[in-house]
Design goal:
The chain has 503 residues and is an alpha/beta fold. Helix content is 38%, strand content 11%. The protein has 18 helices and 13 strands. α10 links the parallel β8 and β9. Belongs to the glutamate synthase family.
């Protein structure tokens, strides 16, 4: 009886509060009951994820896609039975891989437990960088910084990158101790130059050289923008600038850190190329750029200068507008920058028309971490792909879509110590490696089905986009590619084939 009176009293207090407050009309009109509406709204993503949506509906990744990543990461059965559940004939822009009728005999690669798949080009080779190298994996981990991801997640990814033999991009937050567990790094330098930053926020070349010599930095990436929020700077509130983060980023502890929307060291293509050459000469490592795609003027000038001068970038990472981020305004995430297929092909065409596309290693990003989408990128001329959210799922992300709140339930995208403790870096490292290796395996097998040794040798004719009127066009026709644009030079092709057949 006592408990009943207590509960009744609490409900009465809630009723009074709801009737008096003026912030929520629903609560004023429907005391107590109105709270259920807000509760259901809060768990809406979970309800849709597990109860409402079909296997192919949910965004940004469907249940089928997540299931494939989870099963691959855990080395479980990632097959499906009873045929496809996709509506192939009536789905616009449905991708179809056009196999070779007689197939491919396969090579020793198919008995390699690591399914090694090196890049078809030498990164930094065309420009004669001192530390040029051929990346060992065409599948690599994209830029996600410590701060946006937890320490345990970053460590798991670096350990997993070591196991799988792939590259791990640091993201723009600097090189953290959690990046230093044996995996080779691409050090991303954003507008804040974290880790190589002067006291006034400029770029410190000497510190950059020191970090490259000290750590396993194989390449440097100058981040111009990313697909989910191009043109925006960043703000890290002072309350989040702990002693650890301050030391990693080279900023004062406890003070708000501003990442400007543009770089201080350059403001045009000419100055960008000077910066790239200065950094490459000083460090010896290849230097590339990462950018989303908007207006074409920047890319036209870059290609024309590389065609007529000795200066140039070593790789170009194109990030599609469908790419992910920890937090961004919906207007930017949904509407600013072109999606990967459109943006990549426009930039690639600009370089191919000027004959300098073979002098660049092309990297694609933006929901490419699945066999068919990765294969599409290679058919369009990509030499490597970078995966971010797919890598997050491999180490435990459940697409709770709480990245921007700091309350990621799996400890991946949070700094909450209690939540982070649930993520075991050693176990999740193995899962990241399993996912990368499985994706390389699928890419190899699909390439062989198309009659070629390596995905870098695929052509735009190897894939077709169906319309919803029982027709279809090859990627070459859709994007206006000329024959031969999308495959590497004869020298690079011969070298990678020899490498694959020699294993």
């Amino acid at each position: 009886m006592t408990w009943f009176l207590i509960v009744l009293g609490l409900l009465a207090l809630v009723v009074v509060y709801d009737l008096v407050q003026r912030k929520h009309a629903i609560l004023r009109n429907f005391p107590v009951i109105g709270h259920f509406r807000y509760m259901l709204e809060t768990i809406g993503p979970e309800l849709r994820q597990y109860i409402v949506t079909s296997n192919d509906e949910e965004r940004p990744f469907s249940r089928d896609q997540r299931t494939w990543v989870y099963a691959s990461a855990k080395k479980q059965n990632n097959y499906q039975g009873f045929g496809t559940d996709n509506e192939m004939e009536l789905s616009p822009n449905y991708l179809v891989i056009k196999h070779d009728t007689l197939g491919h005999p396969g090579t020793a690669t198919e008995t390699d437990p690591q399914w090694r798949l090196p890049c078809a080009k030498v990164l930094g080779g065309p420009r004669g960088r001192r530390l040029a190298f051929r990346p060992d994996s065409v599948v690599n981990v994209s830029g996600m910084s410590f701060g946006s991801l937890s320490s345990a997640a970053v460590e798991a990814m670096n350990r997993g990158a070591k196991i799988a033999g792939c590259l791990h991009n640091t993201g723009e937050g600097g090189i953290a101790p959690y990046h230093l567990h044996g995996g080779d790094l691409i050090w991303q330098l954003g507008t804040g130059y974290f880790g190589a930053r002067t006291a006034d926020g400029g770029f410190d070349l000497a510190e950059c050289v020191r970090k490259v010599e000290q750590h396993r930095v194989k390449a440097i990436e100058v981040k111009i923008s990313q697909g989910a929020k191009p043109g925006l700077g960043g703000v890290l509130p002072g309350a989040k600038v702990t002693a650890e983060i301050a030391g990693i980023r080279g900023v004062p502890e406890g003070k708000t850190v501003i990442s400007p929307s543009g770089h201080r060291t350059f403001s045009n293509v000419d100055e960008l190329l000077d910066f790239v050459e200065e950094v490459a000469d000083a460090t010896g490592v290849p230097v590339g750029i990462k950018s989303a795609v908007g207006l074409p003027g920047f890319w036209v000038e870059l290609a024309e200068r590389m065609a007529s001068e000795d200066r140039g970038v070593d790789y170009i990472a194109i990030d599609g507008g469908e790419g992910g981020t920890g937090a961004a305004p919906p207007s930017f995430a949904d509407h600013v920058s072109l999606p990967f297929k459109v943006g990549f092909t426009r930039v690639y065409t600009i370089f191919a028309e000027r004959g300098v596309h073979h002098d660049v290693v092309w990297m694609g990003a933006g929901k490419l971490g699945f066999p068919e989408t990765a294969l599409l990128a290679f058919c369009l001329g990509a030499d490597m792909i970078a995966v971010a959210r797919e890598a997050m799922m491999a180490v435990g992300c459940i697409q709770a879509q709480r990245c921007h709140t700091g309350h990621c339930p799996t400890g991946v995208a949070t700094q909450n110590k209690w939540l982070v403790r649930g993520l075991d870096p050693t176990d999740k490292a193995a899962r990241l490696a399993n996912y990368v290796i499985t994706l390389r395996k699928e890419l190899t097998r699909l390439s062989h089905a198309c009659g070629v040794e390596h995905p870098g040798l695929l052509r735009a004719d190897h894939m077709e986009m169906l319309d919803d009127h029982f027709g279809g066009r090859s990627l070459r026709d859709v994007f206006g590619y000329q024959p031969g644009w999308e495959i590497p030079s004869e020298q690079d092709a011969a070298a990678v084939i020899a490498d694959m057949q020699g294993r």
